[in-house]
Amino acid sequence: MDDPKQRQPDITKAREILDWEPKIGRSEGLKRTYAYFQSLTEGELNEKDHYNFDKYIIK
Hints:
The longest helix is centred in the middle third of the chain and has 14 residues, at 26-39. By secondary structure, the protein is mainly α. It has helices spanning 12-18, 26-39, 42-45.
């Protein structure tokens, strides 16, 4: 069964192949994701795709 409570993604391949590391922690990422979706209008929220995370990108 695919239970999100048990899911523990392994980013080893991303580190090895892409030389990628997360820039923010899980807690901060969840806060930003929540803030993003909370900021959407009802119409925007009902759209299929959400790609505009620009105001949440760390510079």
